[in-house]
Amino acid sequence: MDELVARPAWAGLDLPLSLGGVTLSILPDGPLASLAPLRGQERAVADALGAALPGPGRMAALPGGGRLIWNGLGRYLLAGAAPDARLAGRAALVDQSDGWTGLALTGAGGAVVLARLVPLDLAPVAFPAGGVARSLLGHVDCLLIAGTAGFEILVARSFTRTAVHDIETAMRAVAARRALPQGPVGAGP
């Protein structure tokens, strides 16, 4: 009889991968839950978490560790912290820990790599550290989080290989372009 064997979505992928000063790696697993405050319970949820609910495109650090990440109108991801019992009856909570893969893209050229894949302005003025955006990574839905050293990219577990392939392709293209000799436009060899 066949036996099912649990394996991570990134099993068999050659990560971390470093090209042209940019590194793509897997973020460590941790608790992840979707959180949606029930109608009229936003204040009670914020009090239970010990932090204000972040506005659109933002996230908030939680006092006991973990983060609350905006994920759409009235929806958040509780990352790195187990849901508190005080949230019972105040918010809808669904464990998402095995449904998402977290990728980290670090290095000075990370924004240049992502610019080939996401339709967002990734300049620090437009998308500062702590910024959050729901977007497309190529044709894959993602949640993009700007950090001080690069970007976190959350994708559905089933799209891990596609996301890694697309990011690797963009990394290779950016690295190859940087390796080209720089000279005046139209100048011959």
- Mind summarizing the main beta sheet? 6 strands, antiparallel
Q: Total number of β-strand segments?
A: 11
CATH architecture annotation name of the largest domain = 2-Layer Sandwich
DSSP strand content:
25-35%
Radius of gyration: 19 Å
Strand order of the largest sheet: 1-2-8-11-10-9
The helical percent reads: 10-25%
* Count of the domains: 2
Mean pLDDT: 91
Classify the fold: give the CATH topology of the largest domain: Gyrase A, domain 2
| CATH class wording of the largest domain | Alpha Beta
What structural class do you assign from the helix and strand content? alpha+beta
The CATH superfamily label of the largest domain reads Probable tRNA modification gtpase trme, domain 1
Euclidean distance between termini CA atoms: 65 Å
Order of helices and strands: EEEHEEEEEHEEEH
Shape: globular
So how many helices?
Answer: 3
Parts with pLDDT < 50 across at least 5 consecutive residues: none
Outline of this structure?
The protein is α+β, with helices and mostly antiparallel strands and 189 residues long.
